[in-house]
Amino acid sequence: MRSVRARAAIGATLVVAVALVAAGLAVLLVLRANLIDQADLQAEVAAREAAGQLATGTPYEDVELDDEEDHPVQVTDEEDRVVIVSKDLRAVTGTGASGVTAAPSASAGATPSPGDDDDGDDDADADADDDGDEDRGRPGRGEVSSDDPDFSDGTATVGRTTADYRFAAVEATTPDGVTLTVYAGAPLAAEQEAVNTVRGAMLTGLPLLLLVVAGVTWLVTRRALRPVEGIRREMAAITASEDLARRVPEPGSRDEIAALARTTNETLTVLEASVERQRRFVADASHELRSPIASLRTQLEVAEAHPELLDLPGAVADTVRLQVLAADLLLLARLDAGEKPGSATVELGALVREEVSQRAGDRIAVRVEVPEGGAFEVNGSRGQLSRVIGNLLDNAQRHAEASVAVSVAADGRGVRVEVRDDGAGVPEEERERIFERFVRLDDARSRDDGGAGLGLAIARDVASRHGGTLTVHRAAEGGAAFRLWLPRPS
Asked: Residue 483's beta-bridge partner residues?
C-alpha cells in the first residue's frame, strides 16, 4: 500500500475501531452491573418482606408474597427442607434447594405448652452455651438477619414461563426459634433486553461510524497533502529543466508542510549558489590557467623557430606558476569534497619558525615573535597548516612596505597566529570579500605579481576545517593583521 492517504485512513479507522470496541465493552459491563444491582435490590426487598412476616410469627400458609411471577419465593428451614414456595412455581435453580413442594416442619404454626416453653428455654440456653460459635451469625428469635444477603443467578419456572432470575437469600428466625432462609428472585429480563438493545445498536452503528471515520480521514489527508503534491511536481519540473532559480510553492499555513516547502526553497537557494560558485570557479580557473599556458606556448613556439630567443627563466617561471595554480585548485577541490584534516599534534611555534627559516630569499625579512618555552599545540594536518602560514606570509610580502612580522600566542582555549605588515591595509568594507576565491583588490597589478587570488580563500577554508577562524584587522604598523585562531586539543 503505497498511498499515504490510504495508510492514514486505515490506521485511523483501526485506532477508532479499537477505541470504540473497548468503550462499548466498558459501557455494556457498566450497564449490566447497574441493572444487576437494581435486580439485587428488588430481590432483597422481596426477601426481607417475607422474612419479616416469618420473624413476627406469621404461619407459613398466611405469609403474603409479592407478585409471584416477578418475585418467586422459596423458603427453606435449617435442614434445607422447602417450607414455603410461591404459587405456580414449577421449578427453580440457583437457590438452596431445588424442591418446589412445601413440606412444613412439625413446629410450623404450632403453639407450644407452658411446660414445653420452659423446657424449650432450657434447651435453647443449653444450645446457646454449647454452640455459641455456630449461632453467633444467626438472627435472634423473631429477628431478620441484618447481614448483607447472598446473591446468586438462577432460573425459575412460574406457570409455563421459564426465565432467568437474580436470587437474594435472607435469614430469619421465628418466635419459636426456627431459622429459615428466604430466597426471593427478581427477573433479569429487563437487564438482558437492555444489554441486547445496546449491543445491537453498537454493532449496527460501529461499521457506519468506521466508514465515516475512514472517509473523513481520507478527505482530510488528501487536502493536507495537496501542497506536498505541488512541491513534488515543481521539484520534478526543476529536475527536468535544471533551472535552479525556480522555487516550490509555499502554502500560507504554518504547519509542517509549510516548513518543508521553506526548507526545500532554502536548499534550492544554497544549491543554486553552490552551482553558481562552481561555475564561476571553473570559469576563473580556466581564465587563470589560460595566461601561463599561453605564455609558455608562445615562448616554446618562439624557441622552436628561433632558439637563440628562448626566454628560459620566463618559461620556468610560467611553469612554476602553472604548477602552483594547479596545486591550489587541487587543494580547493579536496576541501570542497569534505576532506577532513589529520589528527596529528602540531606545535605552531615550531611550525612558524620552520616556515620563516625557509624564506631567506623574501623581499622583506620576517620578524618572528614566539615566546620561548611556550606550548602552542593544536590538532590537525601539518601540511595544510604550513600552507596557511605560507599563504599569509606571501600575502604580507606582496603588500608590505618595509616590515613583516609573525607572532604566536595563547588566546583563551586556543592558539593565535598573527601575520602583520606595514602596507596599505584592507578597507573595512572589503575584509570579507578578500577571502572569496579569485578575488584581488590590486587588479591594477599584473597577474604575475598579484597572484591568482586563491591563497586567502585556501587559508580560511583550512582554518574552518580545523575548527578555527581566520580574520583580518588593522595592524599596529598601519597595514593588515591576519589572525589565525585554532583550538587546543580537548
From this structure: 418, 471
The C-alpha torsion from 375 through 381 and 385 to 390, rounded to 10°, is 120
H or E element, residue 409: strand 404-411
Rounded Cα–Cα distance for residues 133 and 290 (Å): 120
- Do 455 and 311 meet the contact criterion of CB atoms below 8 Å apart? no
Give the phi and the psi of residue 90 in degrees, each rounded to 5.
Answer: -100, -30
Neighbours of 369 (CB within 10 A): 12
Bridging pattern class, strands 161-173 and 344-347: unpaired
Cα–Cα distance, 362 to 271 (Å, whole number):
42
Phi and psi, residue 333, nearest 5°? -65, -40
Cell readout for 97 is: 434447594
pLDDT digits (tens, 9 = 90+) for 13-49: 999 999 999 999 999 999 999 999 999 999 999 999 9
Report phi then psi at 316, rounded to 5. -65, -40
How many angstroms separate the CA atoms of 337 and 34, rounded? 74
Q: What is the mean pLDDT of the chain?
A: 83
Question: Which among 84, 45, 51, 44 has a CA at the least distance from the CA of 172?
Answer: 51
| C-alpha triplet 464, 469, 473: angle, nearest 5° | 145
Which SS3 state, helix, strand or coil, does residue 479 take? coil
Q: How far is CA 56 from CA 68, 84, 118, in A?
A: 21, 16, 21
For 168-212, the pLDDT digits (tens) are 999 999 998 889 999 999 999 888 899 999 999 998 999 999 999
First to last CA, the chain: 51
CB 335, CB 465: distance < 8 Å? yes
Return the DSSP state at 245: T
DSSP state of 476: T
Q: Quick one: cell of 142? A: 423473631
Q: Please give the model's pTM, rounded to 2 decimal places.
A: 0.50
Judged on CB neighbours under 10 Å (0-12, 13-18, 19+), 278 is exposed
For residue 416, the model assigns a pLDDT of: 94
**74 contacts 85 by C-beta, under 8 angstroms:** yes
Name the DSSP class of 20: H
Backbone angles phi, psi at 375, to 5 degrees: -110, 110
- The amino acid sitting at 7 is R
User: How far, CA to CA in Å, does 425 sit from each of 311, 456, 474, 476?
Assistant: 36, 15, 7, 11
Which of residues 148 and 310 earns the better pLDDT score?
148
- List pLDDT tens digits, range 88-131: 888 999 887 888 887 755 444 443 434 344 444 444 444 444 44
Does residue 403 contact residue 481 with C-beta atoms inside 8 Å?
no
Query: Which of the four pLDDT bands, split at 50, 70 and 90, describes residue 417?
Result: very high
Torsion angle (degrees, nearest 10) of CA 23, 28, 33, 39: 160
Burial of 395 (0-12, 13-18, 19+ CB in 10 A): buried
